[in-house]
Every structure is written in C-alpha cells, then in structure tokens.
Design goal:
single chain, 150 residues, alpha+beta, Thiol Ester Dehydrase, Chain A, six-stranded antiparallel sheet, 6 strands, globular
C-alpha cells in the first residue's frame, strides 16, 4: 500500500502519521510496514538536540498504526469519522537500540488473538535487520460522538 491508501485506513495526519508504506499485509495474520525516519521529524528538535533519538513512545505508536491497518484490512473496512482505534494495553515493551535520522524502521505486527473487540498483536520494529523495539499491543476500535471542528 502506498501513502494515499494508508491515509484512507488511518485517521492520523502529519506530524503523527508514522507509517509511510505497507510492504506486506495478510489480513487476519500479519503486516510489514515502513517508516522512513528523517532528520526533519519535529521531535528531533528536542529529543535530543545533541544526539537525535526517535522517542520510544513514537516507535510503539508506529507499530500500533501498522496494527490498526492490519485490523481494518482484516475486517475489510475503513474507519469512519466517528471511529477511534485506542490502546487498551502495552505489555512487555522493550527498546534494544536507538533509532535516529536516516534509519528505515520496519514495523511488523502479527495478530495473536481477537476477543470481544480487543485485538492483541505481537509487534517488532527493526532497523537493518536488527530488532530495535518490541511489545505486545492490545487495541480496540470504538465509535465516539461526532464533534464539530470550528
């Protein structure tokens, strides 16, 4: 999937859209996606000015966005204006190496189970074939009331 298709699957927009391309997706099974980490990312101005590191929380968010795409592809639907994909839990999160400007982050998520609207994924982020972060992600899709934006 290229960026225009991703924009149809995720409500996120710049600066929080963290998936640039989907390389592989097998609905109900797994996804492999890509995030190009650029020196122009807004978080690098303050994290850290002397040694630029992508915040771990954003790596987890990127994995969750890839998992959300897998969920929508599995359900064969797109989010609507009232749907929000929430974290329910993040377990066993580990950060093994820093991610910096110029890295290509490969986002992998596999569906381990889906029970009563809760999706559980085993997720890993890699750079150059080495795992840089991993976690178990629990997410759910909820409808929220529409809010008018002025």
């Amino acid at each position: 999937m290229e960026i225009h298709q991703i924009l149809q699957c995720l409500p996120h927009r710049y600066p929080l859209l963290l998936v640039d391309r989907v390389l592989e997706c097998e609905p109900g099974v797994a996804i492999r996606a890509l995030k190009n980490v650029s020196i122009n990312e807004p978080f690098f101005a303050g994290h850290f000015p002397h040694y630029k590191v992508m915040p771990g929380v954003l790596i987890i968010e990127a994995l969750a966005q890839a998992a959300a795409i897998l969920s929508f592809k599995t359900l064969d639907q797109r989010p609507n204006a009232n749907s929000v994909y929430y974290f329910v839990g993040i377990d066993a999160a580990r950060f093994k190496k820093p991610v910096g400007p110029g890295d290509q982050l490969i986002l992998k998520a596999s569906l381990s189970r889906q029970i009563r609207g809760i999706w559980k994924f085993d997720a890993q982020a890699e750079v150059d074939g080495s795992v840089v972060a991993e976690a178990e992600l629990l997410c759910t899709l909820k409808d929220v009331p529409a809010v008018e934006v002025p």
